[in-house]
Amino acid sequence: MTNPDEFRGRVREWLAASAPRRIAGDLPPAPSVKDLSDEEFETARARQRALADAGLAGLTWPAVYGGAGLDDGAQRIFDEEAAEYDLGLEAFNVAIDLVGPTLLTHGTEEQKRRYLPAILRGEELWCQLFSEPGAGSDLASLSTRAEHDSDGWRISGQKVWTSGGQHADLAILVARSDFSVPKHRGLSYFVLDMHSPGVSVRPLRQMTGDAHFAEVFLDDVPIPPENIVARPGDGWSVVRTTLGNERVAIGGDPGIEARQLITLARSQRERTGRVQADAALLDEVATLEVRNRALAALARRSARAVASGAGPGPEASIFKLEFADLQRIGNDLALRILGADGLSAGADAPAGGAWQTSLLTAPYLRIAGGTDEIQRNIIAERILGLPADRNDGRDVPFSDLARG
């Protein structure tokens, strides 16, 4: 990287000219599971394109694929400065946090050159077709079928909890290409054009009122042979790369901070003359901040390892598990501070209902990227070295497994 101070100055200049600054400590982070309007999408596309034109997108990605070719120090500087701004680029999280790193690791040269520059410029929206109604926590038990033919592949099945599926141009898809081998060995990983014949998308309404998620139906959908990532049957190794990066991304999101809760308490006191806060609650706020900082330090260490070429390790499960728990605690503290006002919603609620929306959004964090139980199993087996539970049919041909 060039001079860090010069780079920081360049980042600050671009952010000040290109994005609105956050009001320090005022509101919780905007939920990333909010459905965007067409206008919001176009604003996000324009900002992502401007970020790429400024040489600030894909800072650690190779320059040949549209990145800046810098080290993790540059990314850390950018993240520190960008934390004070509302970039509004959540629509590109799947593409940049999941698809890009996966293709950099497993994609062919043609796939990298075709997709990565377009991702960094915001030219295409991506979604992730992994979970199924009958294969959630145990993703390897999925049954969407991939059949090989003379023209490539044909995909049939159903996916669910697809973030932004109704807006996506492309998808990463995992399907079963071999039913005669154990479940982890018969999977293949594809890039799917969401505009292909046979793709049907139905948005799912959330309790917040938004419809960020969707279910996707695949009816004999054609995929050309060049769109398989890695070799047929090697999909599980690619899936693990994607999920590892997803967990790192979730754990690296901005969480609820002590300063936001303190600001909320002051605002509530000024507005009502009272606040539901005592010494015990303040002690819990301090504990939340300590855990947040420890998580941030672990995330920085992992980011350095990933930038140096190492894939995300099992520590990604710690990020994801801890972040989900901290969001639960932070929202609970906020609602305790609000007291009876926490029962209101929308424009009538304090901060326009932002805290209530944050509370209703938080449960998805315990499911997305693998449930809490899955994360604990990974931590137990791959970090603590505890014996694994192998009574899960992983050595039985998939066609012989009892399902349903």
Describe this structure in words.
The protein has 404 residues and is of the alpha+beta class. It folds into three domains: 4-88, no CATH class; 127-233, Butyryl-CoA Dehydrogenase, subunit A, domain 2, CATH 2.40.110.10; 252-370, Up-down Bundle (Butyryl-CoA Dehydrogenase, subunit A, domain 3), CATH 1.20.140. It has eleven helices and eight strands. It has helices at residues 4-18, 38-53, 72-82, 93-106, 109-120, 235-251, 258-272, 279-307, 315-338, 354-361, 372-383; strands at residues 126-129, 145-149, 152-159, 170-176, 187-193, 199-204, 213-223, 228-229. The strands form two sheets. Strands 1-4-5-8 form a four-stranded mixed beta sheet. Strands 2-3-7-6 form a four-stranded antiparallel beta sheet, with no helix packed on it. Helix 6 runs parallel beside helix 9, helix 8 packs antiparallel against helix 9 and helix 9 (315-338) crosses helix 11 (372-383). The chain starts with a helix and ends in a 21-residue tail after the last helix.
Name the helix and strand elements from N-terminus to C-terminus, one letter apiece: HHHHHEEEEEEEEHHHHHH
Number of spatially distinct domains: 3
Which strand order spans the largest sheet, edge to edge or round the barrel?
Answer: 1-4-5-8
So what's the oligomer here? single chain
CATH topology of the largest domain: Butyryl-CoA Dehydrogenase, subunit A, domain 3
Query: What value does the Rg take, in angstroms?
Result: 22 Å
Q: Tell me the fraction of residues in β-strands, as a range.
A: 5-15%
Q: State the distance separating the first and last CA atoms.
A: 54 Å
Major β-sheet annotation: 4 strands, mixed
CATH architecture of the largest domain: Up-down Bundle
Name of the top-level CATH class of the largest domain: Mainly Alpha
Q: What is the typical, i.e. mean, pLDDT?
A: 87
